[in-house]
């Protein structure tokens, strides 16, 4: 069920998403201040009839209201650039996961572990368990260790897809013939849901992503179980 919490961003599960939320709030605060000030000024213009018959120019005020907004924009531009470069950092990953977009499902490869590979399809509503999330749960989840740097390689087999996990601050296009890279660090255990976010065809809405974040020893157990089967 939708609640008020769903109107904003999801709680972050990675340091980068935390920074993205801080930046969002920072930019929004500046936006609100500008909107209130300009709104107040425009509203007050309707409520007075002052006229200055001799007003032709005002060098000083024009200097001020040109330079001041430029300085305010710098307060958004510098944190934005900092985040942009931070998101691009790879930080010596300990696990690499390759995700391949298909019409209309994702397939995954753990290239570090004898190339474990599997497909991940959405569970149709009529097959969903009572505690499942409709249009969001998949048959085979990605299992990843928490508190480790993880590299994601994204590509696609047919058309452009997008591998997007809001709680981790990850959104990378999977493009046929290209290999895109990103990385993240999950700082708590849990299930993290995502969806494809490039309009990729009729079933675009039905290729969700589920990450199962587990402690490292559980991850090793999962890996060795899959290596033997
Ligand atoms: Cu794949 Cu939209």
Automatic annotation (TrEMBL):
<comment type="similarity">
    <text>Belongs to the cytochrome c oxidase subunit 2 family.</text>
</comment>
<dbReference type="GO" id="GO:0004129">
    <property type="term" value="F:cytochrome-c oxidase activity"/>
</dbReference>
<keyword id="KW-0249">Electron transport</keyword>
<comment type="function">
    <text>Component of the cytochrome c oxidase, the last enzyme in the mitochondrial electron transport chain which drives oxidative phosphorylation. The respiratory chain contains 3 multisubunit complexes succinate dehydrogenase (complex II, CII), ubiquinol-cytochrome c oxidoreductase (cytochrome b-c1 complex, complex III, CIII) and cytochrome c oxidase (complex IV, CIV), that cooperate to transfer electrons derived from NADH and succinate to molecular oxygen, creating an electrochemical gradient over the inner membrane that drives transmembrane transport and the ATP synthase.</text>
</comment>
<keyword id="KW-0496">Mitochondrion</keyword>
<comment type="subunit">
    <text>Component of the cytochrome c oxidase (complex IV, CIV), a multisubunit enzyme composed of a catalytic core of 3 subunits and several supernumerary subunits. The complex exists as a monomer or a dimer and forms supercomplexes (SCs) in the inner mitochondrial membrane with ubiquinol-cytochrome c oxidoreductase (cytochrome b-c1 complex, complex III, CIII).</text>
</comment>
<protein>
    <recommendedName>
        <fullName>Cytochrome c oxidase subunit 2</fullName>
    </recommendedName>
</protein>
<keyword id="KW-0679">Respiratory chain</keyword>
<dbReference type="GO" id="GO:0005507">
    <property type="term" value="F:copper ion binding"/>
</dbReference>
<dbReference type="InterPro" id="IPR014222">
    <property type="entry name" value="Cyt_c_oxidase_su2"/>
</dbReference>
<dbReference type="InterPro" id="IPR008972">
    <property type="entry name" value="Cupredoxin"/>
</dbReference>
<keyword id="KW-0813">Transport</keyword>
<dbReference type="GO" id="GO:0016491">
    <property type="term" value="F:oxidoreductase activity"/>
</dbReference>
<keyword id="KW-0472">Membrane</keyword>
<keyword id="KW-0812">Transmembrane</keyword>
<feature type="domain" description="Cytochrome oxidase subunit II copper A binding">
    <location>
        <begin position="92"/>
        <end position="225"/>
    </location>
</feature>
<feature type="transmembrane region" description="Helical">
    <location>
        <begin position="63"/>
        <end position="87"/>
    </location>
</feature>
<dbReference type="InterPro" id="IPR045187">
    <property type="entry name" value="CcO_II"/>
</dbReference>
<keyword id="KW-0460">Magnesium</keyword>
<dbReference type="InterPro" id="IPR002429">
    <property type="entry name" value="CcO_II-like_C"/>
</dbReference>
<keyword id="KW-1278">Translocase</keyword>
<dbReference type="Pfam" id="PF00116">
    <property type="entry name" value="COX2"/>
</dbReference>
<dbReference type="InterPro" id="IPR036257">
    <property type="entry name" value="Cyt_c_oxidase_su2_TM_sf"/>
</dbReference>
<dbReference type="InterPro" id="IPR034210">
    <property type="entry name" value="CcO_II_C"/>
</dbReference>
<dbReference type="GO" id="GO:0042773">
    <property type="term" value="P:ATP synthesis coupled electron transport"/>
</dbReference>
<keyword id="KW-0479">Metal-binding</keyword>
<dbReference type="Pfam" id="PF02790">
    <property type="entry name" value="COX2_TM"/>
</dbReference>
<dbReference type="GO" id="GO:0005743">
    <property type="term" value="C:mitochondrial inner membrane"/>
</dbReference>
<feature type="domain" description="Cytochrome oxidase subunit II transmembrane region profile">
    <location>
        <begin position="1"/>
        <end position="91"/>
    </location>
</feature>
<dbReference type="InterPro" id="IPR011759">
    <property type="entry name" value="Cyt_c_oxidase_su2_TM_dom"/>
</dbReference>
<feature type="transmembrane region" description="Helical">
    <location>
        <begin position="27"/>
        <end position="51"/>
    </location>
</feature>
<keyword id="KW-1133">Transmembrane helix</keyword>
<dbReference type="InterPro" id="IPR001505">
    <property type="entry name" value="Copper_CuA"/>
</dbReference>
<keyword id="KW-0999">Mitochondrion inner membrane</keyword>
<keyword id="KW-0186">Copper</keyword>
